[in-house]
């Protein structure tokens, strides 16, 4: 069991893990869904980061790198390319990654530091939450390309698309309907 699991390996998650280590927690895990930690900082090549914390101007990647070097001197574990599927009331974190497979880890505390998604200019003036929708059809291809996977399963593969009469939901082997975790 971990003392703390931090979900999100961006600037807030890295800082939270380091601060928790300094406060005496010893079993800390940071879970990041991307292959590289640092979050949005990895795209921010302009300077201006680090003035408050490090008292010098750094670019986004330099700022993330500084936190990663600090964490490398601690016992904090960092799991990248790991997707969190569920967080229960009992602080059990269900996650999956290509390297580790499906895992469930327990924690005394959990910090959610997943950052945010950009909203388009038009969406900024719209009150409320955006409607739930399916991922764009090209997003799967982008993931496949990023991870070096074939974009489609070979013909005859069990993942092959099945006929759905009247465009209804696909039948689930257990008699129910298939569902998508959002």
* Uncertain stretches of 5 or more adjacent residues: 159-182
* Annotation field: number of helices: 4
What's the overall geometry? globular
Q: What share of the residues lie within helices?
A: 10-25%
Query: What is the residue-mean pLDDT, rounded to a whole number?
Result: 75
Number of strands: 8
Concise description?
This protein is α/β, with parallel strands linked by helices. The chain is built from four helices and eight strands. The radius of gyration is 20 Å and the shape is globular.
Overall description:
There is one protein chain. The model is unreliable at 159-182 (pLDDT under 50). This protein is an alpha/beta fold. Helix content is 22%, strand content 23%. It has helices at residues 11-22, 60-72, 121-124, 137-147; strands at residues 2-7, 28-31, 47-49, 58-59, 77-79, 83-87, 92-97, 101-112. It is globular and about 40 Å long. It has a six-stranded mixed β-sheet with strand order 5-2-1-8-7-6. A two-stranded antiparallel sheet has the order 3-4. A hairpin with a 4-residue loop joins β6 (83-87) and β7.
Features:
182 residues; 23% strand; single chain; 8 strands; two-stranded antiparallel ribbon
Structural topology:
Elements: E1 2-7, H1 11-22, E2 28-31, E3 47-49, E4 58-59, H2 60-72, E5 77-79, E6 83-87, E7 92-97, E8 101-112, H3 121-124, H4 137-147
Parallel strand pairs: 1-2, 1-8, 2-5
Antiparallel strand pairs: 3-4, 6-7, 7-8
């Amino acid at each position: 069991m971990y003392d703390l699991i931090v979900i999100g390996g961006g600037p807030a998650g890295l800082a939270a893990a380091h601060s928790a280590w300094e406060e005496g927690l010893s079993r800390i895990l940071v879970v990041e869904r991307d292959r590289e930690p640092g979050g949005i900082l990895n795209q921010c090549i302009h300077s201006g980061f680090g003035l408050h914390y490090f008292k010098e101007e750094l670019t986004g990647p330099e700022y993330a790198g500084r936190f990663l070097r600090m964490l490398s001197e601690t016992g904090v574990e960092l799991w990248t390319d790991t997707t969190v599927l569920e967080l229960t009331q009992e602080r059990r974190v269900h996650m999956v990654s290509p390297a580790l497979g499906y895992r469930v880890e327990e924690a005394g505390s959990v910090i959610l530091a997943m950052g945010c998604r950009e909203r388009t200019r038009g969406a900024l003036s719209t009150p409320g939450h955006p409607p739930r929708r399916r991922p764009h059809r090209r997003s799967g291809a982008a993931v496949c390309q990023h991870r070096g996977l074939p974009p489609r399963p070979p013909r005859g593969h069990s993942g092959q698309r099945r006929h759905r009469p009247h465009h209804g939901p696909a039948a689930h082997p257990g008699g129910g309907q298939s569902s998508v975790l959002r």
